[in-house]
Amino acid sequence: MAVLPDAQRKAARSLFVYGPGATHEIDLSKMDLRAAIDATDEWINDNSASFNTALPEPAKSNLTAAQKARLLMVVIQKRWEVV
């Protein structure tokens, strides 16, 4: 999967600042937050194959890319009690 286009990265920043679970207590400039979003997106792109390899069968073969992404989001959210 390719990295997010610029418009989606901007939307991600807005969601991070104003979306569910946002604390509004972020000590970062818009540029610094954007750099963090860019780095996160790059990390996801660079490590997606590793995540897929780590999944056991039959999840690896039967889940769609969107379902695998949702699985990762749910685990991350629960791990840090985001939602």
Protein described:
- The structure is a single chain.
- This protein is mainly α.
- The chain has one domain.
- 69% of the residues lie in helices and 0% in strands.
- The protein has four helices and no strands.
- It has helices spanning 6-18, 30-54, 59-62, 65-79.
- Helix 1 (6-18) crosses helix 2.
- The protein is globular and about 40 Å long.
- The chain starts with 5 loop residues before the first helix and ends with a helix.
- The model has no long low-confidence stretch (mean pLDDT 92).
Topology:
Blueprint lengths: L5 H13 L11 H25 L4 H4 L2 H15 L4
Helix pairs in contact: 1-2
Keywords:
4 helices, 0% strand, globular, mainly alpha, 83 residues, single chain
Stretches where pLDDT is under 50 for at least 5 consecutive residues are none
Number of helices: 4
Tell me the domain tally. Answer: 1
The beta-strand count equals 0
Distance between the termini: 26 Å
Helix content: 55-70%
Written as H for each helix and E for each strand, in order along the chain, the element string is HHHH
Structural class: mainly alpha
The biggest sheet amounts to: none
Strand proportion? under 5%
Question: What is the alpha-carbon Rg in Å?
Answer: 14 Å
Q: So what's the oligomer here?
A: single chain
Shape: globular
> What is the residue-averaged pLDDT?
92
